[in-house]
Amino acid sequence: MALMLACAALGGARNPILVPEISEHEIQVRQGFTGADLLLFGAILTPEGARAAEEYDIVVLLEGPVRSIIVREKQQIAGVWVNAASTQFRSAPSFFAVASSRPIKKIVDDKTAAIYELGLGWLQLSPIGVIDPKEQQRFSRGLVDLMRRQGLYQQNEGAVKISGQVLYQARIALPSNVQTGTYTAETFAIRKGRVVTSAISRVIVRKEGFERFVAASADQYGFYYGLFAVIISVGMGWIAGRLFALV
């Protein structure tokens, strides 16, 4: 009897299972693309498929392809703005969005938030080379601010809606200037400040139509693409000059 009670207790303490889904698993970027609105939703279930008894907070991260990026600081000298100090980050995400059921600071402590990068304030940006920690922090804040103003970095606290402690949903907007590639959506279930489970799904953003042809040509036939672009530019300039000469 004691063994059966222990097994039942262990079974009841098992972590829940997240069943995530995304409204679109593939986004096609065509001419006139103005952005996309992604719905990330799912369910919080026990291993047996029943409703979870405990209450959980949900945090959803959507991260785009990482890339190396150089951040330059502008400085005004003799009335002219010029490039001053700069640093290069090895792997900055091209897109980073966080949606949560409550403010992050009310869900987890700073250590947990930093481990899982649960917010723009805890985004791990690795600089190339040796840099003073204060300088690194300043350039990191500058990069986050720049990307945020472009709509590429987002933090939406309270954007995750939980229904009946079973279903959750959140909307994340992709702007028109998003980079193509594979985007990772990771969902975290958090209880009493501890991440108890997580699940990953993916979205592919790719160019289609004429945009895809241009991108593929520039990537595979760079020399000929550049030569063709120069010829087109010269030709258009010559035509414009002839037209203005006739006028």
Tell me about this structure.
By secondary structure, the protein is an alpha+beta fold. It has two domains: 194 residues, Immunoglobulin-like; 38 residues. It contains six helices and twelve strands. The strands form three sheets. A six-stranded mixed beta sheet has the order 2-12-11-4-7-8. Strands 1-3-10-9 form a four-stranded antiparallel beta sheet, with no helix packed on it. Strand 5 and strand 6 form a beta hairpin. Helix 5 packs across helix 6. It is globular, with a radius of gyration of 24 Å. The protein starts with a helix and ends with a helix.
How many separate domains make up the residues? 2
The mean pLDDT is 84
Q: What best-fitting shape do the alpha-carbon axes yield?
A: globular
Structure classification: alpha+beta
CATH architecture of the largest domain: Sandwich
What is the CATH level 1 assignment of the largest domain? Mainly Beta
H and E string: HEEEEEEEHHHEEEEEHH
Low-confidence stretches: 1-12
Helix fraction, binned, reads 25-40%
What is the name of the CATH topology of the largest domain?
Immunoglobulin-like
Query: Termini separation (Å)?
Result: 101 Å
How would you sum up the major sheet?
6 strands, mixed
Oligomer: single chain
Number of strands: 12
Name the CATH superfamily classification of the largest domain. Answer: Macroglobulin (MG2) domain
